[in-house]
Amino acid sequence: MASRTLPATATIDLIGEDLLENIVARLPAISFASAACVSRSWNLVCDRVLCRPKLASACSYNPSLQVAVEEVVNRVLLEPIRPHFAIASVGPSFDLQEAHQLITTKLGSQVPVITNDPSGIIGRDAFSEEFREIQWEITEEDDDPDAPLVLSDSANSAIMLIVGFLPGLKVKTIPLLKKIKEPQIVKIDKFVIDIREFSASVSGCKSPAAIIMFSDFQAGMKAVMEKIDYALSPETVIVGDSGCLFQYTDGVNGSLRNTTVTQHVSAAVALVIAVDKNRPPGLGETQFHAVLSSGLSPVGPTYKAGSVVEKHSDSMTWLTARREGSRENIDGETVLNQVYDELGDRIQFPTFYIGVTKRRKCTIGKEKVGYITSLAFHEVLGDNQEYFFVGDVGIRTGDTFRFYHSDSTTALSSAASVSNHLKSLNQGTTSISGSDRWEVFGGLIFTCCGRGESFFGRSNIDSTPFLDNFPGVTLGGTFCGGEIGRGGLTPYVKESQEHNLVRCCLHVYSAVYLIMSYTPIKRI
């Protein structure tokens, strides 16, 4: 009697689902995706393997862009993962648009991808597994201020790729548009409304779970973040970089963005993450937590803005000041001399800022007008006999402010506080009642380009709080031109009861951590 030949799938099914699950769990992502398409039963097994959120990251320092992209993509896809989003950060020796196109081609046009050019990258080498914080080596010719910047190819040929899988959530890139022609109006209200409409369509709630944002220096992020902070629930965590160039793919029709859209250009892009109201039953809860390490220390008394002259063409404000409780205006030179006297020689080359408390009217579209009180930092640029000068505009007569200076001692102390906070997360002390203990599965870090080894005197200070508390957990990040951070610790504004409602979303000399955790449903 002739033996009957079984189909290959049936033969493999006979080995049992447990063994099949063990096998497919060891496959790289592309082979895993193919296995999930074999049959319905195989798909269900693959769903069991990949039922929890996952973050994968890798860095490459290969001088060839094509090879570097190949290395990081192969590394993040080494294990089963279904990319829901990707963030790539490239060094200045690489072409931003070319890098974006290569990564998008590798991951597929349906994956939302943001590629940016930060001031450095933070992450684990794809081959050596060494964790490094790398800042670009950029120098100027001292004898010729007009000479072009000199880039060190060996130090600046780098790329970091982060890929995330978030079951039960939806992810979308949403641009902040700016008119190309004068006046270059930034469409903030549309940006906020687009975020709320996407979140409402996905989750039934206008506020998403988290936003990861990237913007260029000209986006006017102080005004943008004030409106976003006003419009969204305090539960929405927001992090990012407010000083970089970027490209993005929307993940819907696979088109490359950040170039001209009709009469507008993208000044910023938000990776919006919202809970899916139609998510399958049995999924646990993915949560996002923001924590801040500050590198600023206050100096001197609190002042009020006296005379205010805005120089819009130079994005600068000229100020005089008066002490709180006094009507006498103090000229700019005198104010700065008082600050220098107060500081003494404690720090050799500090960078100064004023932290301005602003209470402003705010509304979105035709909605009812409300108020928001925010803290905004402006870098001190210099003085003359009458005024001192700070970067950016938006300060009004009567606004209160205080001087701050960059301080590595404060930053080290703050990093220790962050480590203690993360330790409590690691111990699950704030776990949801009635659930299993949560687990941290990944993290992102956005740290100021003024920090790093030159600031602290040793390397990897900002990444240490995460690495010490969550060894083996994926962490990736960048050095920024301006850190976006909403939620978490706010050390600048806890000095008095009056500041309880003051919020700060744009930071300087800080490190902003986004911690991603997952709480499975407790099985009875």
UniProtKB/TrEMBL annotation:
InterPro entries: F-box-like_dom_sf (IPR036047), F-box_dom (IPR001810), FIST_C (IPR019494). One of its GO terms (biological process) is protein polyubiquitination. Residues 332-487 form the FIST C-domain domain. It comes from the Eukaryota. PANTHER family: F-BOX ONLY PROTEIN 22. This is FIST C-domain domain-containing protein. The lineage of its organism: Eukaryota, Viridiplantae, Streptophyta, Embryophyta, Tracheophyta.
